[in-house]
Amino acid sequence: MEANEQHIAGALLPVLDIPKDGRVLTFGAGSALVALGIAAARPDVLIVVCDTTSEVTRSVSDRALAENLNNIIAGDTPAGPLVDRALCYDSFGTLQDVDLVTLRNAMLPGGYAIFAETTISANDIADRLRKFGYQVADALDSLPAHNVVRAR
């Protein structure tokens, strides 16, 4: 696993605050790579990696197998039960409108999503999320050089 992925995953874990034996949905290519670090750090958590390109999901599946990360499922749709947390890391600008709805609908009541971006402002993220029924909880200052928004 690359050091940068581990560093980012380590910085995101306190923000995600995943419950024991929880489930996390990651959306987008940037999130897929970070998911490997989260899976390694939290073997009790099921990580569902979703990306619309087979290159990303195949790569994540291959790495999860090679690194013996048995708590990752990768595919082009968010299969399985509802999740406690969702993560979109440096992929927000590529998400289609339907992806934002899918992400919101995949969360358990009381769950939340974290959106972390380097090039999109927290206000722009929050404005777009509100258009799709999200309740924006707050903008966080927890990840250097990133605009981080937590929403339900």
Poorly predicted regions are none
> Could you state the order of secondary-structure elements as H and E?
HEHEHEEHEHEE
Number-wise, the strands total 7
In CATH terms, the superfamily is Vaccinia Virus protein VP39
CATH architecture descriptor text: 3-Layer(aba) Sandwich
Helical amount among residues, as a percent range?
Answer: 25-40%
Would you summarize the structure shown here?
The protein is an alpha/beta fold and about 150 residues long.
Write the layout of secondary structure elements.
Blueprint: H1 3-16, E1 23-27, H2 29-41, E2 46-50, H3 54-66, E3 72-75, E4 83-89, H4 97-105, E5 107-117, H5 122-131, E6 136-140, E7 147-151
Parallel strand pairs: 1-2, 1-4, 2-3, 4-5
Antiparallel strand pairs: 5-7, 6-7
Helix pairs in contact: 1-2, 2-3
